Amino acid sequence: MPYPGLDGEQGFTLIEVLVTVLVLALGLLGMAGLQSLGIRNTHSAYLLSQATAEAYNILDCIRANRTAAEAGAYNISLGSTPSGASLAAGDLANWKARLANVLPSGQGSPRTQAQ
Predict the structure, then answer these.
(1) How far apart are CA 96 and CA 89, in angstroms?
(2) Could you tell me the sign of the dihedral formed by the alpha carbons of 16, 22, 25, 26, in that order?
(3) What DSSP designation does 72 have?
């Protein structure tokens, strides 16, 4: 028998409460997934920006030392270490050290070509 003054409604049932909790939990899981995706994409964009900045850095070094670049002094394979005491070898050694510090794989290989 309903309580007087409640017009036949006695409150929430357990099923209504469980459905509400389920909907809220799914919403929170969805928000956590979006947050995780956003963080992952932000980190990827950061690494791309770092790689681009380092590419411009070595290009500036090559432009500053054009004669050596045209002679192939900046051509170096992935994973190899620059040798010698030339300006180009120093530029490459510094550049490879910076790549190792800012990028996960930390390798690069500029290839120059005389025109």
Answers:
(1) 10
(2) negative
(3) T
For the chain, the domains span: 14-102
Q: Calculate what percentage of the chain has a pLDDT beyond 70.
A: 86
Q: What is the pLDDT of residues 11-26, one digit of tens each?
A: 668 888 899 999 999 9
Angle, helix 87-102 to helix 14-64, in steps of 10 degrees: 180
- Judged on CB neighbours under 10 Å (0-12, 13-18, 19+), 93 is middle
Q: Taking 90 as the threshold, does the pLDDT of residue 79 lie above it?
A: no
Vertex 68: Cα angle to 66 and 71 (nearest 5): 110
- DSSP for residue 32: H
Q: Are 47 and 104 a contacting pair, CB within 8 Å?
A: yes
Distance CA 56, CA 59 (A): 5
Give the count of beta carbons closer than 10 Å to the beta carbon of residue 59: 14
Q: What is the pTM of this model?
A: 0.66
